[in-house]
Design goal:
Shape: globular
Strand content: under 5%
Helix content: over 70%
Number of helices: 32
Structural class: mainly alpha
Number of strands: 0
Length: 725
Amino acid sequence: MDNSQKKMLQEIEGSDRELRRFWAIIVLTISVFLSAFHLYVAGFGLPGIGSKTFLILHLTIGLMLVFCIFPIRKGLRQTSIPWYDVLLAILSLVVGTYIIQKQTATSIMSGRPTDMDLFIGLLLIILVLEATRRVVGKPLVIIALVFIAYFFLGEYMPGQFHHTRGDFERFIYEITYRNNGIFGTPIYASAQFVFIFILFGAILESTGAGKMFIDLALRMFGRYKGGPAKASVVASGLMGSISGSSTANAVTTGTFTIPLMKRVGFKPHVAGGVEVAASSSGQFLPPIMGAAAFIMVEFTGVPYYEIIQSAIIPALLAYIGILFMVHFEASKHGITGIDRSELASGRKLLMQQGYLLIPLIALLYYLVYVRVSVNNSAFFSIIVLLVLALFVQRFKDNLGRTAIIAVGVIAITLLLQVFIDPINQGLHALNAIFHINFFSAEMIRWKPEILTLLLISIGIALIFALSQTKMKIDSPPIHFGWKQTLAGFETAARNALSIIVACATAGILIGVITTSGLSTKFTRIVIGFSETLTNAMPSFLVTDNTQLYFALILTVFACLLLGLGLPTTATYVVLAAIVAPVLTDMGVHVLIAHLFVLYYGVLADDTPPINLPAYATAGIAKAGPVRTGVQGFKYDSAALLLPFVFTLNPTILLITDATWYQIIWAILTATIGMIAFASFIQNWLVRKYHWYERILALITALLFIQNNLMTDIIAVITLAVIFIL
């Protein structure tokens, strides 16, 4: 991502503060430390501190960075950090330090916090809400304030919402010192899983991988009807799975793809809308799913490999829907592709930057085949990525000198195994010198995989460098070095801030829900309302699934409402805590319930008027943001029915005992249903629909939702009638 893209992204996400000199160095130092600390923890574990201390440090440093980077309001164009934000950053550090020191204090362990404990806890809540307002925006803060108000006003609430637990001391204690509030599951997922993959994505992006994905996608689809738009869908899907941010993905890929789409004939707002839909839907796509997969492991207890196995087919169906939406749009307006002579050679692209795909292969290998921990998998992949990115070009530029450096790196790695115990003893001795308890006796834990990966990566880098020289392949657009490495570390810390503060605020919501007993009441309310609606229906329209249909529809509205204006990963955290339990209590499989809320949470990110990716792509396309947002929602709407499909027909999630031909039939009918719904939205199949043909297309799509052979046969007949017409 170049400087202009970074500036656009920062302004859209609320930060137009451009720090210089001293302040820029301060922010860079804190950001690099935060990223390096998480990288260390991912590889070697916690350095003599408890997991709770790790979460507090994660949030504390995140809050400090927020007040250093994000101004109190947009439009100030500050080049330094004002005194009040410096004070807030210092206050965040003081609050975090206090809470770390008080973890095992008698007042906290006994559940009788002192007045100072309560004051510090209140300060933490205020700091979290203010940081959330600056980074994420007002919607999540308003939701949090509503929940807080509910906690204290529960005795005045009617019916199911009534409770008598609104005590101030209990509120502060539960939210700030217990593990079901700010330092609960959301912030744990953010610290343990999300950050390390944001770091992986940021480093990968700083190598120029985004441009490679775009060029490869253009090579695959560029010459076909509406080719640049189809290439945008594929490239944005690949980047979106890794980036975890719809807006960042839209800026990164949209800078290249939107001008190409406009050039072949797509209208500006349509080009921007295609990029919005493609960028957002990357959160569905394994292996990373914008980090949602790893958070889902925490919430559901389902192993990672089972989650990505279940998520892969719906994700591909979602992208099939978007691709057909693009195809029908291109067919309607006679939009062609790019001449083949203008497209880069796929072989040369793979030789030039194909090594950047190897870290992704390594990630899948460790996650799915070896099944080591999520953190270790990311750590090993980042090692592979850094070695390849740093050595390939240097081997090509100066083979002899780089070979000496490579031998030196290997020698240092080998020596580290010998001297690791003395180094740990020396670090451990620093605790007594500085009166701290940070360094453990096993501060550095050697992993044999590091040396193996180092040797393999250097070997691969040498092969690529020699092949590029022999084939006279041009150098990649970015010469990766230490500057790009530090930039990747800083970008990761900046990109993680929205997740950190949103997860902390989500912890407040979860704390209120748990402490007030709202979780069980909310479930009873939805089930009761669904039952009332079912009873009001004529008996001949009621089926075994009618009540579930109503509950799912109510859940959709809750997801779209709660997800407005939130980063997609944070949206999923909120929905997983509040909404998903409703579906599981109604008998829906836990994985289905969480995938359901994930899909509609991501669609909420595309819903106008609060649609940050649309503001990003509208700026690139030079179109209206609201109009672009509507187009984005339109192109993503092909996936609107998909969660209903896999909820009522879980065969496509591969979690049933279905036979192979039942699985193929389920996938086939779901695919046809997606295409039929896309044609209904676009009012086009092989030509423009008549009004009754369009209704038939909608009926076909709805019939394919049912997990029933009879409705499938009727849908196939209806589709045949459409073609005959």
